[in-house]
Every structure is written in C-alpha cells, then in structure tokens.
Amino acid sequence: MPQPNYPVIQIQPEWVLEPEALGSKQKFWFRSEDKETEWLFKFPEPNTGQHWAEKIAAEVAEILDIPHARVELAVFQGTPGSATESFARHGWQLFHGNQILAGKVLGYDPQKRFQQSDHTLTNIFAAISAALPVEQPDLRNAVWSARAKPQFTEYLVLDAVIGNTDRHHENWGVLLRRAGAEWQGMPAPTFDHASSLGRELLDSGRGLSRERLLRERRVGPYSERARGGIFWETTDRHGLSPLELVRRAVPLYPELFRPALTRLERLDRQRVQDIVEPVPADWITTLQRQFAIELMYYNYNELLKLRL
C-alpha cells in the first residue's frame, strides 16, 4: 500500500518574522498564529533538490535515533522549500562550530569557511570537549565531554549515509545557557543537510547527470569522490568525503562510533525507499528519487562493513 505524502506547511505572509542573515540562501523566520515555536523557511537554490534533501535527511536521522532539527516541506507564495523548527529556545543559545573552535584551537580563523583545513576531526573533538565557558572542569563538564563526542560521531554517520558534503564549521554547534552562576550545555541537534543526496545534479544533459550515473552504475564512485567540509590533516587540500571520513575515524575512535554504526541495522533498502517515497511527486522527479535511494543504499552498505 502506498504511503501518504509528507505534509506540506502553507506559510501565510503574516507569519513572516524577519529575514535570516546567516548563510548564502534566501530564508526567513516565521511563526504561525496559533504556535509559539519559530521556524526557518529556506528557498532551494534553482534546479536543486535542497528542499526535499533536507526533509529526507531529517527522516533518516529519526530512524537512526540521531538528535536532529525537525524539518517539514513548506510552500511560501507558491514556491516550495523546507521549514526547520528552531531548537534554540527556552533560554538556550546556539554557538556555531567556528565560534567554539576559535576559542579553543590556537590560530583558528572563524571567518574562513572555504578551504578551512584547520577544520579537522581532531580539532573539533578538542573544541567540543572543552566547549563550556568555565575556567575549572567539574562534574558537569565531565558529563558534557562524555556526551558531546559520541553525538558528533552520530552526525558523521548520518552525513555518510546521505552524502552530506556541507558539514562546515557553521553547520554544527552547541547550545549553552546560564543557570544561576553556572553554565549548562548540550550538543545542538544536527541541522542543515541541504547539500545531500546529489541534490545539485541535473537529471540529464551533457556532463555528469543522474541518468548517466545510474545507467553507468557510477553512483558509488560519485559518493567516493565527494569533498566534505571536514579535513583529516591541516595540510590537506580538500576535505574528505563523508564516507571516507567515517572509514578513517572508526579505527581511531571505535567506542565513539559503535552506537551509531549498530543502529544502521534499522535501515535496509526497503526502509530507505519508505523514507524517500512520501516526497510528493510534484516536488521530486523519478530520477531524483531513484538516485537518492541508490546513493543512500550504496553508502549504507559501505558503512555496514565498518560495524564493530
């Protein structure tokens, strides 16, 4: 029996709150009249599947029990996009990775987004382990450190499944808030997965296309050649593919990766199809749908080889 389509939020003009300055894509915050929570609406870049990629990524994270921002499909004035529910509320403030790294890693340039080779997994782990802004470590900091690294590895496994190439230093963070004289902290849920699932490819035409990659059985090589936002060494010219990053990291941090890799058992080809199929037919083409399924299934099978 076919699954019902994912719901689509119809955003009313009077719900719009303010434009969002951070990032390159056009977006704005909105809140419906009967809700307290704010949402961020993002227009997809032309000829891309960024909106459905965001939704599919959130659904994969849900299946794998990975903390993630809630995402729904949405339409504003006839234009389809994605809506992400705010998770920085109730006094919590989001501090992006570049802010954390700049305060914890000597010489880190928080303004250098592209080719930022200091954005290595080693530096990220060092920064999030010491993310709470206090001078002396205490029990609360010990609990934070034990929680932060495993949760970040979950995000890396998710990136590898969906082929997310945009885990740059503003696409992860921590949530902090004051509680009296102390600070409380927790890792922010994973967010912003628009650069996933081959969303930039055209269905057909000259050069690289979904039709050609599927016909020539080159979905795997496409995934392996991807350049992600996290570097392995500070001397590297490019970030590793999301899949290769996990391959290299698992032998060094087996206990950190074990939980997320174990939960991959919840995915299989049918479950992957069940996640993709509810995207409405007028939002995604047949080739886009097929390519997303094949890409995730390839990555899933490669990750199964790493299970401990």
General form = globular
CATH-scheme architecture of the domain at 8-85 = 2-Layer Sandwich
Roughly what fraction of the amino acids lie in strands? 5-15%
CATH topology-level name of the domain at 8-85: Phosphorylase Kinase, domain 1
Number of helices: 10
Low-pLDDT segments, ≥5 res = none
Order the strands across the largest sheet as they lie in space: 1-5-6-4-3-2
Largest sheet: 6 strands, mixed
* CATH class label of the domain at 8-85: Alpha Beta
Can you give a write-up of this model?
The chain has 10 helices and 9 strands. The chain has 308 residues and is α+β, with helices and mostly antiparallel strands. It has a domain at 8-85: Phosphorylase Kinase, domain 1 (2-Layer Sandwich). Strands 1-5-6-4-3-2 form a 6-stranded mixed sheet, covered by helices on one side. A 3-stranded antiparallel sheet has the order 7-8-9. α4 crosses α8, α4 packs across α10 (286-304) and α9 packs antiparallel against α10. The model has no long low-confidence stretch (mean pLDDT 90).
